[in-house]
Specification:
It is a multi-pass membrane protein. This protein is an all-alpha fold and 466 residues long. The protein has helices at 9-17, 19-41, 47-75, 77-96, 103-131, 137-162, 167-176, 179-189, 196-201, 205-212, 219-239, 245-248, 254-269, 272-287, 296-315, 321-345, 353-367, 369-379, 383-414, 417-438, 447-456.
């Protein structure tokens, strides 16, 4: 195992969350690359092909999240993140050298790349929650979101800077440059220790204590946490051989699994990635200007996302998770629905109105649903099923992302943008209802306390934090 004496806690938290940079870069890079790819391969009239090229990464991520969950329970969080980083490197390079008009090649390679994206989305929050003390878990897990949106902003800036190159070179460089942060991630993770909870689960108590000694403030805190983990692990290790999909939805775990997976699914079905993937095309449809000339808008959205993620780091452990999700989801819903209402009342309203409302949506999303989804996924699942349940939540999240990315260009080809976003607005309201009904409050509770209460009571009757 890595010698933790040479690994400062800040380094652990930084590179523990650095996978989010790659996650974010691959989410955002196609936003700018797509207009050039469309022109280079003459895809303007092929809505389904565009949808598949954009959403192929999310399709692969559906399986990457599930596979990573199982691998991380066998190999450990650290080794699985290293494997994901290598896939990032190879997939990025293969994307950049796609043959001309190689639509099927690019779709296949991006599905392969999606395996790593899905793995990162599942492993990073799980790793961070297991390393962070309860009092700081929301804030430190929120670093994951800051990394994701920083990766998105980086991709938007690179897209903007490269837009002056010939079309066939510009989009290839945009996609291929993701290999650079992937190599940085690989080098950093080589120095990371394994999760203490994984080590305890595998009877490596000395190693677990050693890791905790560099990320906890005193010996009493370390001893208390080791005892808590051991007490939970003793019971759960006996049952670990029986863990399956049916186990996760058994009476003991069902309520917390439904809560975590449901929040992860709603985050995507609310439609945020329709903005992030297609904002140049949205501006193009609203104004009539070429999509390739609208690449400043993704940068603006990226700045909003980064600022929002920093706001979350300040407020993460000051407000209840459920309260932030409720307020954020409500305003997000109104931001999607009001443009359709105003368009109905004022048919000749400024078409850029929708972009203004989308910016409001992004602002609220950036410090509520975007980071809190992964905080909840990282802290709500019991240890015995955490790897697989996190993978399942990640897969459902990516199913939503895949469907939004695939269907948005098809939907906007058959109905107005305002109507499409109004549909997403209704989903936002449904997400708020789900949170108020099924999701327990987890702020300030240790992972063992969350499991104990969640196992004793159905979530419908779980009143903590209400």
């Amino acid at each position: 195992m890595v010698d933790e004496k040479k690994v400062p806690s800040g380094f652990i938290y930084f590179f523990g969350a650095f996978g989010g940079i790659l996650f974010g870069y691959d989410i955002g890079v196609m936003t700018g690359a797509l207009p050039f790819l469309e022109n280079d391969w003459h895809l303007q009239a092929s809505a389904a092909t565009i949808g598949w090229i954009v959403s192929a990464v999310m399709f692969g991520a559906i399986f990457g999240g599930a596979l990573a969950g199982q691998l991380s329970d066998r190999l450990g969080r650290r080794k699985t993140i290293l494997i994901a980083a290598l896939i990032f490197v190879v997939g990025s390079i293969l994307s950049g050298i796609a043959p001309h008009n190689g639509q099927y090649y690019l779709i296949f390679v991006r599905i392969f790349l999606g395996l790593a994206v899905g793995a990162a989305s599942a492993l990073v929050p799980s790793y961070m929650s297991e390393m962070a003390p309860a009092r700081l878990r929301g804030r430190l897990s929120g670093i994951n979101q800051t990394m994701i949106v920083s990766g998105m902003l980086l991709s938007y800036i690179m897209d903007f800077l490269l837009k002056g190159l010939p079309e066939t070179i510009a989009w290839r460089l945009m996609l291929g440059l993701a290999a650079v942060p992937a190599l940085i991630l690989f080098a950093g993770v080589l120095r990371l220790p394994e999760s203490p909870r994984f080590l305890v689960k595998n009877n490596k108590l000395a190693d677990a204590r050693k890791v905790l000694s560099y990320i906890r403030s005193n010996q009493d805190e370390i001893d208390s946490e080791i005892l808590q983990i051991q007490e939970t692990a003793k019971q759960e290790i006996k049952e670990s051989q029986r863990v399956s999909l049916a186990t996760m939805f058994s009476g003991r775990y069902r309520y917390l699994v439904i809560a975590g997976v449901g929040v992860a699914a709603f985050q995507q079905f609310q439609g945020a990635n329709a903005i992030f993937y297609y904002i140049p095309l949205i501006v193009n449809q609203a104004t009539g200007h070429a999509a390739s000339s609208a690449l400043l808008w993704p940068v603006i959205q990226g700045v909003i996302l980064v600022v929002g993620s920093l706001v979350f780091l300040v407020i993460a452990d000051r407000f209840n998770r459920r309260s932030l999700l409720t307020v954020g989801g409500t305003i997000m819903a109104l931001s999607f629905i009001l443009p359709a209402v105003l368009k109905f009342i004022i048919p000749h309203a400024n078409p850029m109105m929708i972009v203004v409302f989308l910016s409001i949506y992004v602002a609220l999303y950036s410090f509520t649903w975007a980071p809190l989804t992964w905080v909840i996924v990282g802290e709500i699942f019991p240890l015995v099923i955490r790897g697989r349940a996190s993978g399942l939540a990640s897969s459902f999240n990516w199913i939503g992302s895949f469907l939004v990315g695939l269907l948005f260009p098809i939907m906007t080809a058959s109905m107005s943008q305002e109507a499409v976003f109004a549909i997403f607005g209704v989903v936002c309201f449904l997400g708020v209802f789900f949170v108020r009904t099924f999701v327990p409050e987890t702020r300030g509770h240790t992972l063992e306390e969350i499991e104990k209460v969640g196992g004793e009571k159905p979530v419908m009757a779980y009143e903590a934090g209400r």
